[in-house]
């Protein structure tokens, strides 16, 4: 199953996806999204990773959010000591989608060469459903920019079908609810500079992730 299909799992038809067009339709579409979110029973798993604590939240239908808490400095790399990512706190029962997400994250840090062969979880956040520009950009990023690769904001806008929407691509990266799984850290400026991450608060994490992928890709 392709990553694009995974993003569409659990999709319900929204009346409107953008602020353009019928106002009433947009309001109804937003209300539908809120109702869908409120009907979910979410659970959260906490992981201790090389980036510090990561919290993964989701329901039976899929993953809603991934949060990097930035509670400690990123781990230093060592050729002798492999990086680890372990469950720190978890509900007694979790959905298969949450478990799939945890397994993917563990592989990404510990054995990144295997992460690409693992199935991704389904996603159940409104930003990843429908055909709004944010959803489309994130889908393209997930599908086409692989481990160890980077892409400029300008090029990603072109890949998503709107070459003039460079600023909108930046906005889509800021609204990405599942960083790491959808690799917004791989989107850099046209000058080659890494650019901001987590609204500028996580720039050091972006550098760490890009180095992690570059070194593991060479290994």
Can you count the beta strands? 6
Regions with pLDDT < 50 over 5+ consecutive residues?
1-30
Helix content: 25-40%
Strand residue content: 5-15%
Shape assignment: globular
Overall pLDDT level: 84
* Biggest sheet overview: 4 strands, antiparallel
Distance between the termini: 28 Å
Note the total helix count. 8
Rg, alpha carbons: 17 Å
- Assign the structural class, choosing from mainly alpha, mainly beta, alpha/beta, alpha+beta, or little secondary structure: alpha+beta
Question: Which terms would index this structure?
Answer:
39% helix; globular; 6 strands; two-stranded parallel ribbon; 14% strand; disordered N terminus; alpha+beta; 219 residues
What would you note in describing this structure?
There is one protein chain. Helix content is 39%, strand content 14%. The chain is built from eight helices and six strands; from the N terminus they run ααββββαααβααβα.
List strands and helices in order, with pairings:
Blueprint: H1 3-8, H2 23-38, E1 43-49, E2 52-59, E3 62-68, E4 86-89, H3 96-110, H4 112-115, H5 133-144, E5 151-152, H6 153-159, H7 166-174, E6 187-188, H8 203-218
Parallel strand pairs: 5-6
Antiparallel strand pairs: 1-2, 1-4, 2-3
Helix pairs in contact: 5-7, 6-7
